[in-house]
Write a structure and sequence with these properties.
The chain is mainly α. It is built from 1 helix and no strands. The longest helix is centred in the middle third of the chain and has 117 residues, at about 5-120.
Length: about 140
Amino acid sequence: MTPTQIAALIAAGAFVLLVVLLAIPLIKLGRTLDEATTAIRKAHENSDPLFTGANSTITHVNTQLERVDGITANAKTISGNVSALSSLFTATLGGPLVKTAAFSYGVSKALRARRKRKQEPAGRHFRRKGKGGRK
């Protein structure tokens, strides 16, 4: 064998060694991809019941929201009715009620002043201290 053939034989051996060393990671990568494919397939099979359950839950929530919508509409109507009723009460009974309260206050103040004058000693005159009086 000539030195050129020996060098070619060594180069061929090195090339075979390189191919073997690169084939091992490629085989491991292929197994990893197979496992990933299997995991994705299982996840896809198990996701159908999950999506079905989520769909029924969302349908139930929508039903409850429609009920809440009705309740809030009724509450809005009731609050409007209460507001109208309080305005009506204020308009019809507010003025006369204030006048009656003012009248009763004036009567009670006059009665107190009269009782106070009756309790003063007879025959004795004194000046009342009030508005516009002399000091």
